[in-house]
Amino acid sequence: MLELRLVQGSLLKKVMEALKDLVTDANFDCSATGFSLQAMDSSHVALVALLLRSEGFEHYRCDRNLSMGMNLNNMSKMLKCAGNDDIITIKADDGSDTVTFMFESPTQDKIADFEMKLMDIDSEHLGIPEAEYHAIVRMPSSEFARICKDLSSIGDTVVISVTKEGVKFSTRGDIGTANIVCRQNSTVDKPEEATVIEMNEPVSLTFALRYMNSFTKATPLSNTVTISLSSELPVVVEYKIAEMGYVRFYLAPKIEEDEEETNP
Amino acid sequence: MLELRLVQGSLLKKVMEALKDLVTDANFDCSATGFSLQAMDSSHVALVALLLRSEGFEHYRCDRNLSMGMNLNNMSKMLKCAGNDDIITIKADDGSDTVTFMFESPTQDKIADFEMKLMDIDSEHLGIPEAEYHAIVRMPSSEFARICKDLSSIGDTVVISVTKEGVKFSTRGDIGTANIVCRQNSTVDKPEEATVIEMNEPVSLTFALRYMNSFTKATPLSNTVTISLSSELPVVVEYKIAEMGYVRFYLAPKIEEDEEETNP
Amino acid sequence: MLELRLVQGSLLKKVMEALKDLVTDANFDCSATGFSLQAMDSSHVALVALLLRSEGFEHYRCDRNLSMGMNLNNMSKMLKCAGNDDIITIKADDGSDTVTFMFESPTQDKIADFEMKLMDIDSEHLGIPEAEYHAIVRMPSSEFARICKDLSSIGDTVVISVTKEGVKFSTRGDIGTANIVCRQNSTVDKPEEATVIEMNEPVSLTFALRYMNSFTKATPLSNTVTISLSSELPVVVEYKIAEMGYVRFYLAPKIEEDEEETNP
């Protein structure tokens, strides 16, 4: 039997908004340690990993490990019916082919339960090794989202270049070129507005803006985003979920061959 | 001659928004007692009744009973041109084939008059007898609107079941089932947030959500909605218009034969 | 070499929003006196003139007169990437076929530069003589925008009639007629809310609402709009840009022959 009670139900709604455009169907894995998901996007280019640790739930009961295949679009439809202040409980009986989402209003005057059919989904869990990164950038998540959106109006790819001074986002397209530099500024009043760079060696990598823009759907989950870059590894774009876990997106860099030709 | 002056002009704008998606053309009836309308929706399934009593108008002159056929979409286009604080006057000369809507800004610096052609519309006025209902539910109108909208993302019909404890709204669809229970709670701080149930006997009826959602376009007219249910009668969904009258929607229940089959 | 630094960068964003739907490609002319543009709309019916005087820039360097052909849609895409509080600098080297827009955030922590290709555009500069107008109406720009939008839901053209008492905007269409009168009211508390009429002789002219609605895209630039009317001249719809200049739209009146026939 599974029963996970999350007082801050709006968090689960935000998680769904962050994932549903990227992932269609996925297995949610429940164990004693937490509620998690790992899935490739539908075009098999990006990887998403979600973790909500058991300590973050008001009540967390998971008698045995359980993998529940869900259609994220349908799950999102149901969770949208929860009020932003509602307490959400996820329930499943052993061996059942359904999962129930229960929404309780703060006053307990309105109780909703939505039962969704589960699916059988083939998936293999990839071990993602902890790695050393050449550079790690922490910056305001809204700033990162704005930059990805702005550059998309000019080009299709973004070059992210990190030096000690700052991080540069560049693109080029038919109408021209764009460069946006964010300087390291750890001395701002509010820590969540800082841009902080940890760098072992300079790095410059190219990514598809389409995926970056999908990742920024997770912006409401966290004030800051952490971008970990290494020339031999996929970039990790991480949104921490306060006191509970994270959503992480992995994307391999593009190999640019003929990009340089168009440079003057 | 007809001259109806309504200080709270925004009210007439809200009435049009409540009706125009449901009713295309209709006769507005003016008499000494008030300004009213009764019309079937365009698919002849739901009935709408509007009453604005003469006492609610600042000035109300109606020399003889008059029935004015109007296209509600065109009328809505004109009323949208009134400011929210404007005073609206409806004017018609005897025998004229037009009606004039006059909008005066609060400062009287801007005066608009919109003249609209009237139409000949065949209609018969149905006598709607006062009836006894098995159960009458009064609840916040925004809550009812939210529930109808939420359930529409899961299924096409809603089962409304009333017991002494509360009212339950249920639906089922391809992706699963949903049940939302609102408990009777007459002891809230603000009376307009109460859910109050008057019940003679339990009742459980099924309705098309499409129509319910249309009815909730009247939500801006009133903080509360009253739902009157009886197994042999159409449901009445009523939005009171403060000190003036009401908009009432009537809808026959669906006869459910094969609904039960899919129940486990 | 050209370098124009505008502290209030949002102003340039508003100018682009005002022009881009009307004008596709145009030459921006830079001289010691200011940054200006004159262009016909793409259907060659309306004329637009923009002036931003050099005094309004924090820094203004223009070594020699320069005409830069730009696609306004592309320019708008780039300027949309500037934050509303950003300082915008326009830069061009002598003989270069590109222009650079630099955006600096108020904290200087984010610096963006967008480089756009210039175009060769044939254009002739029309001398617009200063003229005497029969009537000049100054009114709140938001009120004018609202009236043009409202009348568009009824008809395609607007008759603007000015008398000493006020200005009347009229239209007619399939569903009826509309008249909106704004009275002269120079004694309001806030000068920008006044409607002020300077009149030598009464005037009544007809214009295409489609163009008037395009002109009102400039509404965010100024609280007031000035409409200058004369029976032999195009109307001038002017939005002043505080301490810098203006955007002016010119539109020839329609000759109405058969309009009167439909009058009773």
Automatic annotation (TrEMBL), chains A, B, C:
InterPro entries: DNA_clamp_sf (IPR046938), Pr_cel_nuc_antig (IPR000730), Pr_cel_nuc_antig_C (IPR022649), Pr_cel_nuc_antig_CS (IPR022659), Pr_cel_nuc_antig_N (IPR022648). SUPFAM superfamilies: DNA clamp. It is found in: Nucleus. Gene3D superfamilies: 3.70.10.10. The keyword DNA-binding applies. Residues 127-254 form the Proliferating cell nuclear antigen PCNA C-terminal domain. Keywords: DNA replication, DNA-binding, Nucleus. The keyword Nucleus applies. Residues 1-125 form the Proliferating cell nuclear antigen PCNA N-terminal domain. GO terms for cellular component: PCNA complex. One of its GO terms (biological process) is regulation of DNA replication. GO terms for molecular function: DNA binding; DNA polymerase processivity factor activity. Belongs to the PCNA family. This protein is an auxiliary protein of DNA polymerase delta and is involved in the control of eukaryotic DNA replication by increasing the polymerase's processivity during elongation of the leading strand. This is DNA sliding clamp PCNA. It comes from Cannabis sativa (Hemp).
